[in-house]
Specification:
This protein has 756 residues and is α+β, with helices and mostly antiparallel strands. It is 29% helix and 13% strand.
């Protein structure tokens, strides 16, 4: 009889109820679990769990019963969010980017619950760093329905006639309020004063709100109590995004703030503590973070339980929107600025400062350092480490990973210059060579550029999560992230392996070395990140590390970050008429002048790219004045996200991925690059288009080589100049190896190449 019972139990388990595939993924992510962790617990392969979440396969006994049990427990912890059904007269969902907008509506919002998240002191603005790798096909970005529209206040025609029409923002992967009624009016508002003196807030989707606040403290209160601004958290253990208020010049005047900062204030990055508006905030018991009242300011009261009160200010006329990242966004009319920032907020996240700061904050938002524990004996939950995150405490880097001036190097002689055997130097390419006689007979120099290369380099990359461990004479492990001291000078590019059992003979003098940013062949032992050493093995050469700093606690920390930024980039490019499934010739044509189709969305594209580069640069932020002296700690070192090893690994992988494509192209076509700068490669060719030299056959690219397309890791046309132009500028500046990749886009060379 027991055998019959067992058979019945097995039959029931084989049909254990499972939620839909998308819900399986949501529940796993909500608890901060990685696919690898689930696969390990269920004793299956990673690809198996991916197939379950994608709906390609279904689990079978005995794993099905255990998987269903896990999902059931997670569903109890993280119930599916409920989206209220739209009212009969709800607002029409947003249309395409070029669609004319309806007249903006004016609302007096009802009181909204205060958002929950804790104050995070944002890091300082800096723009550094870079990274790439071939990306998988992007997941389609589906637009979710908008939240129901609250009742519209009756207004006289005169109260709205002065307000311009607003173009609808392009539909995004995440709606403005994320379907959360607490944030029904979107993530942010641009506050402006009209010609009639009325203060209004331009929100996303063309919505305009009346603002009754007459002082800055009152504006903060209004934002928290009535505006219904903010955004839901990006990860289960995370925190909701704070409301963002953007103040125009006229709004600054209304609230007693200067339209621009003085030279002294700009240098300090804030208003002086004795300013009258700061005194108003203090009297109203509001606090400012260490950044004070500057271009990006955070105004808060200490949280009591889950009752969080925090509003962020953005002041464009104080240079909050750096033109290097945001172009002319700071000069846009309020409604248009709300559209640009709103699209960025819905697809990336609500800006937390510069694009560099936001890029770093996005990493933390997707992998919060802590989560709530299981209930203890008294039913209480406690804060505990969130697996897969960098944790809440900083870790020391290895000595070889430390930049000059780091406290760990304080015992070095004052003027000591560390060489490759002492310092990890993983940077992007800056390499060029003189053209051959045969290349000089060709007509054109054609530049191709890898799309969002440094984001693609982060995709699937295993990086260290904790502190490094020092190992003497280790056996190299390509799956173990770390820094390795190894001699790669024996790797000869004249003969390399380009397939499992396939070798190629190349002209090494026409190729950059994959091991140094300047493309020079190594002269002896040097420190390298794991992807660089692994590539030496891939090329067919043995490696014997002398020592290493490795990280046994590791994971694919940047996967979600990459996916979020990839989807934002692809969705915005699709709005501009460039799609991921285009044929090569159609793609080249679509890229021509794409920015002119919607200059505002083109700003978003630039901001997404800057978020990638700046965020990675922040992982190794250097001192920024403040009286710092070499050997002393600086502010960024106190962050768990100060991780120069992660930045180095991403850049290493990006450079290696590019070199791999260059080698495959050379082995197949006999063509070699003339110049390489970061993610741009220049070739001499007879035709002016990439289609004239990239080896497509029957519409298919060279496997492992360059492929035209908009996906991260694929390439686009960067620019074309004549061979005569290249020879002329090199002669004019008496620089035979001037890096032509730096100027290939528009051909304008204003000064001698300094390498900066």
């Amino acid at each position: 009889m027991s055998e019959l019972f067992d058979a019945v139990d097995a039959l029931v388990a084989s049909r254990a109820a499972l939620p839909p595939p998308a819900e399986r993924k949501r529940l796993r992510a909500a608890h901060g679990l990685t696919i690898d962790e689930v696969a390990t617990a269920l004793k299956v392969r990673r690809a198996t769990v991916s197939g379950w979440e994608a709906g390609k396969t279904e689990p079978r006994p005995p794993e099905r019963d255990a998987y269903a049990r896990m999902l059931k427990q997670l569903a109890e912890l993280y119930p599916a969010p409920t989206t209220p059904a739209p009212e009969k007269d709800a607002a029409v969902p947003e249309g395409s980017a070029g669609e004319p907008a309806a007249a903006p509506e004016v609302r007096t919002p009802a009181v909204a619950p205060v958002s929950e998240a804790a104050v995070v002191t944002a890091t300082e603005n800096t723009q550094t760093g870079n990274t790439q790798t071939p990306a998988s096909a992007p997941a389609p970005v589906a637009a979710a329905p908008e939240a129901a529209t609250p009742p519209v206040r009756n207004t006289s025609p005169s109260s709205t006639s002065h307000r311009p029409g607003v173009k609808k923002a392009a539909s995004a992967g995440t709606p403005a309020g994320g379907g959360d009624p607490r944030f029904a009016n979107g993530p942010l508002a641009v506050v402006d004063v009209g010609a009639d003196g009325q203060v209004v807030a331009y929100c996303t989707g063309g919505l305009v709100l009346d603002v009754p606040a007459k002082t800055l403290p009152a504006l903060v209160e209004w934002t928290l109590r009535e505006a219904k601004l903010g955004a839901p958290k990006l990860s289960g253990p995370g925190k909701d995004a704070d409301s963002l208020i953007v103040l125009t010049s006229s709004a600054l005047k209304r609230y007693g703030l200067p339209a621009t900062l003085s030279d002294e204030e700009r240098h300090a990055g804030r208003l002086p503590e004795g300013h009258k508006v700061i005194k108003q905030l203090v009297r109203a018991e509001w606090k400012l973070t260490k950044r004070g009242l500057g271009p990006w300011a955070r105004i808060y009261r200490p949280a009591t339980g889950s009752d969080r009160q925090c509003v962020q200010l953005c002041i464009p006329s104080w240079n909050a929107l750096d033109p290097r990242s945001w172009g002319h966004a700071g000069q846009l009319p309020p409604a248009d600025l709300a559209r640009v920032l709103g699209v960025y907020a819905s697809r990336v996240m609500t800006p937390r400062g510069s694009t560099a700061v936001t890029g770093l904050e996005l990493m933390t938002a997707l992998h919060p350092p802590t989560r709530a524990s299981e209930p203890d004996a008294d039913g209480q939950r406690h804060s505990e480490h969130n697996p897969g995150s960098l944790g809440k405490d900083p870790v020391d880097c290895a000595p070889c990973e430390a930049p000059d001036g780091h406290p760990i190097l304080k015992d070095l002689a004052r003027f000591h210059v560390r060489g490759p055997g002492e310092k990890l130097f993983e940077e992007a390419y800056d390499w060029a060579r003189a053209m051959t006689d045969d290349e000089c007979t060709l007509r054109h120099l054609v530049g191709i550029d890898v799309n969002v290369a440094f984001a693609a380099g982060a995709n699937g990359l295993v990086v260290g999560l904790g502190a490094p461990t020092h190992v003497e004479a280790p056996v190299f492990d390509a799956k173990l992230p770390g820094s390795w001291l190894v001699d790669l000078s024996h790797v000869d590019l004249a003969r390399v392996r380009v397939g499992k059992d396939k070798w190629a003979d190349l002209d090494a003098s026409l190729l950059p070395s994959p091991f140094t940013p300047a493309g020079e062949r190594p002269q002896g032992p040097a420190w390298y990140a794991t992807p660089t050493v692994a590539y030496a093995q891939e090329l067919g050469y043995d490696v014997a590390p002398i020592e290493a700093w490795v990280r046994y606690d590791n994971g694919r920390y940047l996967d979600g970050w990459y996916q979020r930024l990839r989807d934002a980039f692809l969705a915005t490019m699709a709005d501009l008429g460039v799609h991921a499934d285009m044929e090569p010739a159609d793609f080249v044509a679509a890229m021509d002048g794409y920015r002119d189709r919607d200059p505002e969305l083109a700003i978003v594209v630039s901001a997404v790219k800057a978020t990638v580069k700046g965020g990675l640069g922040k992982l190794r932020e250097r001192p920024r004045g403040e009286g710092w002296k070499p050997g002393q700690p600086w502010r960024a070192l106190a962050r768990p996200t100060w991780r120069p090893d992660i930045r180095a690994a991403v850049i290493s992988r990006t450079r290696i991925n590019l070199h791999r494509k260059i080698v495959k192209h050379a082995a197949f076509t006999g063509q070699y690059p003339v110049a390489v700068l970061s993610d741009c490669v220049v070739y001499a060719a007879d035709g002016a288009s990439p289609l004239d030299f990239l080896p497509y056959r029957d519409g298919k690219p060279l496997p492992g080589g360059f492929k035209l397309g908009i996906n991260p890791g694929l390439v686009k046309h960067e620019g074309t100049q004549s061979v005569l132009w290249g020879e002329e500028v090199r002669e004019r500046f008496n620089a035979p190896e001037l890096n032509l990749a730096r100027y290939i886009k528009d051909g304008q060379v204003t000064d001698k190449d300094s390498g900066e």
